[in-house]
Amino acid sequence: MKKKLLQINVTANWGSTGKIVEAIGKSAVENGWESYIAYGRMGNLSASHLIKVGSKMDNYIHYAYNRLFDKEGRSSVQATKILVKQIIAIKPDIVQLHNIHDHYLNYQILFEYLNQTNIKVVWTFHDCWAFTGHCYHFVQQNCMKWKTECEQCVKRNKFVDRSRENFLLKKSLFTGNKDITIVPCSEWMGNLAKESFLKEKRIQVIHNGVDLNTFKVLPNGRKNDRKFRIIAVSNVWQPYKGINDIFKLREMLSDDYELTVVGLAKKQLKTVPIGIRGITRTQNVQELVKLYNEADVLINPTYADTFPTINLESLACGTPVITYRTGGSPEAIDDKTGIVVERGDIKMLQEAIETICTSNIDYSVNCRQRAEKYFNKDDRFREYIDLFNQLLRQ
């Protein structure tokens, strides 16, 4: 009888976490498992059996519930009860959690069920939400209250602030699971988990990987002209992703540099300054690979991130990376494949770009070799299958 894996994430084969979930599911199938993915919204075709959690209206209601009452992950009651019934019917050997926040799932109902079963739970941390009272990325506010007990959240007003209540509920539910393994996707996140209320649980870092057959160096990928090409990529461009820093950077660079920003919403295209080429969000991977290959350097001026997949995609395409010293983002590169810049130092960002673009170093070979050595998805996601099998043998 085949072993069964059920993953739960906000998206399925869409966006960075959705593609990671899909890759893990494929790896499971290739190793003889039966794979299921439960998701809240935004799903593409999958090699796994897909389970839709709730409806679009459920998402809207849950979003409003959180905004009004600070109860993220505590609405979607009926949708989660239906999911629990589906889990009971599937009888998975492993339940792997990813992003269970973002307005589609009731984590209290889910954990009250999981905590009374013998199902092995593996939780991949893509952000910090699991051990805070509110924040996905507390570094944006430089708030360390999660180390003790969240209260008086700087992101909520004093009239509706349930950060302490949320923190204590999460602590009770998540530590109450006897069969949970935490898998941070960066050493940085792993160190945070070891300081959180989950520090007594098994914690094993597994870095993300990318498809090296898809993200690759193309023949004649770089254009032979006088322009230096800079690319910046994000699924969603918000201020914490550094979009405003990119706008300021454009003013500081000469006309010898062409700057392309990928992943903008249609409304954002209207606000892009002159001199920046704006491209909307794309699910066309081949188009993205071409853009990486055409670029001399990827910039990732993020203020909050765990282990960005775009860094790995860029390396696989032979393009060096410049990143802010944020979260686990610097872990993707070394001094032969990119430069780490202090957060918010746009002048240093400019100088790093000029250093790489005018250098005689062949970054392409070094970048590809690093991707092959450390970030091959087949190697990284095989670590999950090995972990699953090890847990089931215990």
Could you report the average pLDDT, rounded to the nearest whole number?
A: 91
Query: Can you write the helix and strand succession as a string?
Result: EHEEHHEHEHEHEEHEHEHEHEEHHH
The biggest sheet, with number of strands, parallel, antiparallel or mixed sense and barrel status, is: 7 strands, parallel
Tell me the structural class. Answer: alpha/beta
User: Numbering strands along the chain, what is their spatial order in the largest sheet?
Assistant: 3-2-1-4-5-6-7
- % residues in beta strands: 15-25%
Which blocks of ≥5 consecutive residues have pLDDT under 50? none
Task: Report the oligomer.
Answer: single chain
Written description of the protein model:
By secondary structure, the chain is α/β, with parallel strands linked by helices. It has helices spanning 15-30, 56-69, 77-90, 107-114, 163-175, 187-193, 243-252, 266-269, 285-294, 309-316, 346-357, 363-374, 377-393, and strands at 4-9, 34-39, 49-52, 94-97, 120-125, 180-184, 202-203, 228-233, 257-264, 276-280, 297-300, 321-324, 338-341. A seven-stranded parallel β-sheet has the order 3-2-1-4-5-6-7, sandwiched between helices. Strands 10-9-8-11-12-13 form a six-stranded parallel β-sheet, sandwiched between helices. Strand 5 (120-125), helix 5 and strand 6 (180-184) form a beta-alpha-beta unit. The mean pLDDT is 91.
